[in-house]
């Protein structure tokens, strides 16, 4: 069927095309079906929606992803991609072959799967899991879908945290420690999805974080390290497309986590990787048993991928640093690099960096690199290379001007500091979109407090956001005070 | 956030709304998230896509499903529906409670799930199945979501076929047989999705098929029976919404089939139901073992739903009638009602009708009702009640004028008549959109044929469609001729 295509500015993540209902019927195409679109000898795939008014008969509206495919085109109904049959096989708990997994990854990468099929892919992995062999094939297929950085150095260090813990901003501390020891560490990080700040959001307080793969390489060649946003470099680009389908379902199956993490590391050219697995209530991993299993799976998959890895299992029940939100976390980072800062954040950074040194067989001492100021100098060097101000001081980093202090209200002991509610209060206050918004914690679990002791301060850039955050906190009681001799958390 | 909503004519099946990227970021809403839209004290739920041009900042484009929600609105980010947690639980193979299933069905009915979540629902059922208890809850929840017809008669008969077999047009024959015996049979049928004709498409050759539930009731009160399109009456409307997500994945999990079928029957007020389960290569059910299991599951679920059911397992390896496509099947139907017609179609209709009589404890004889002309009179009565011409004769029903006869090409025996390819040839010829398009089979499996014997005729209303169908047939060889003593189907 010959149609005339024009662009319509809707940024659907999938290559949606809109057909007049009569043309769709003529083609035998239903909502969510795929059509092949030929123009100038090239073929594109579109996913169908229908209309009776927005597009006239004989017309075809193409959304942003296919925005360049305009003018006269020839369309036909496309068969289902073979990868859908592989997804169905996985739903029925069959083991997938290397080629099957390559087809699935290829079709996800090319946006050939519609949202129902993507949901089924994630569901199949969640329901039936992936064997170590399948996980390895998935890692390799995801790595192959993007760019890959080659380095002249033999040892390339890297670090990843499974996440879910507020204020766990060890990366901008570990990277300069490791780089200061002369070890190459090309670190990519994420922006917040459901948290009040990702590492990339915090780093963005100091400097640029969006770079191409080539720019990232230049920064690392110059300084040994970087902390850039993973979304701008083209390393394992399929990952984001899969995460988009995991988010609505709030699932994060272990095999997929491992393939996502390791494919990013392989793509960055890294070969010595430390994986931090914090566990605790409301963290991504909720028990020590599950953390140990995940660590073992990581180890077994990495064995066949020429990756040296070390997994650390750490406590993730409560926030690590004091600040939560981009600016407040950036202040903690600078404080630790300056030899002070929140103790938990300092200790965890030192411990992980030392394990990474050990893995890389490098003779260096993280505490010494911190206390000598070498790590701070290296950090300023990296900030400068990423286009930021190398002379930034803590007082230059201003949290939001609207503040609310939450006090204990009674004498007692801090029973729980809930990651999840603390994060949500910070989000309501405007983080990460308003970088100065967030929370500064003045207590940790088991602290003794008096009635008028301050538990935490909420910061916001907008008054209305502060109100929203305070109202929410009143509802959920993110920090709970109890009697010192009370065994009970709550009575319901 | 206050926005001004306007309608945009895109007929997405889900209630998609399009926000400017900046407003979406401000709300913290990503693609596929839900927002609450308040207008005049009422609240609606929309599923988010973003744009930078189609909608200005401060604006909100609502697609057809929410087309009435225009003007000033207040929007906020909506939490994930609780049903998503139930779907996740099912993915992890937990048994769902009655209330969980009710929430899922309610949210699907209200279009509160996005396509990724719908895909996960179908996947969870496919991967982990439904217990008989879950299937019963699902049937009841699906029934409750739509209208329900009450009858004054005690015995209400009904019939369903699991499908997948070409030319299996027994319904327009069985309904008048049963109605002629004085038994009420309010039959709803589907239009074709991937086949060349559904029962509703064939019946539409004779009369109207789109009626409201009230109109359907009136027709049945007048004639004892009807054959109307299930898509126009509001009986178990959730079914179509689930089927939309099953289609892309080509899955049809048994528990979902049972709930779909039985909820339609419960909604129609039926209490004596015959379920035909044809099995064979390319039919929906592919083995005798699977057919028996499905029959047993039907029986166990129906037991707790006050439904008397009988399941028949029939052969579905090759087409039943001679005609495939709306007009060609309508001609077969009229021929059988007239006492002649394709033998397989006549015998199957009689057998199923007699079993239904037995189930209803009615003393009647299907063959006698056919041969006496009582069924034909009843059929004409129903056609008239549905607004068609009661005096229609076979010659009034004209298949497409463009024809192509396929001959055997060699002496031999008919090895296979492939349902799936025969159906696809008929679809390429234009069925069901062009009612006169389709196929008339002149052979059945195991027939001896000579080289110039006609195997089947392809009919089309448009020459281009005929060419397309013939080309496709040359590729797939829908009917295969072999040597009489040949054990082999194919050598590869």
Task: Provide structural commentary.
2 copies of one chain form a homodimer. By secondary structure, chain A is α/β, with parallel strands linked by helices. Chain A has 4 domains: 2-77, Barwin-like endoglucanases, CATH 2.40.40.20; 82-129, no CATH class; 157-385, Nucleoside phosphorylase/phosphoribosyltransferase catalytic domain (Pyrimidine Nucleoside Phosphorylase, Chain A, domain 2, 3-Layer(aba) Sandwich), CATH 3.40.1030; 402-482, Pyrimidine nucleoside phosphorylase-like, C-terminal domain (Aldehyde Oxidoreductase, domain 3), CATH 3.90.1170. In chain A, 40% of the residues lie in helices and 20% in strands. Chain A is built from 17 helices and 18 strands. Chain A has helices at 21-27, 82-91, 98-109, 115-128, 132-144, 171-180, 199-203, 213-223, 238-249, 254-267, 288-303, 326-337, 343-359, 366-371, 374-385, 419-428, 463-476; strands at 2-7, 16-20, 34-39, 42-51, 59-62, 71-77, 157-161, 185-189, 225-229, 272-279, 308-315, 323-324, 402-407, 412-417, 438-441, 448-449, 454-460, 479-482. In chain A, the strands form 5 sheets. The first copy, chain A, has a 6-stranded mixed barrel. In chain A, a hairpin with a 2-residue loop joins strand 3 and strand 4 (42-51). In chain A, helix 2 runs parallel beside helix 4 (115-128), helix 8 packs antiparallel against helix 15 and helix 10 crosses helix 11. The longest helix of chain A has 17 residues, at 343-359. Chain A is globular. The model of chain A has no long low-confidence stretch (mean pLDDT 92). The interface between A and B is large, with 52 and 52 residues. Chains A, B: Keywords: Glycosyltransferase, Transferase. Chains A, B: GO terms for molecular function: pentosyltransferase activity. Chains A, B: Pfam families: Glycos_trans_3N, Glycos_transf_3, PYNP_C. Chains A, B: This is AMP phosphorylase.
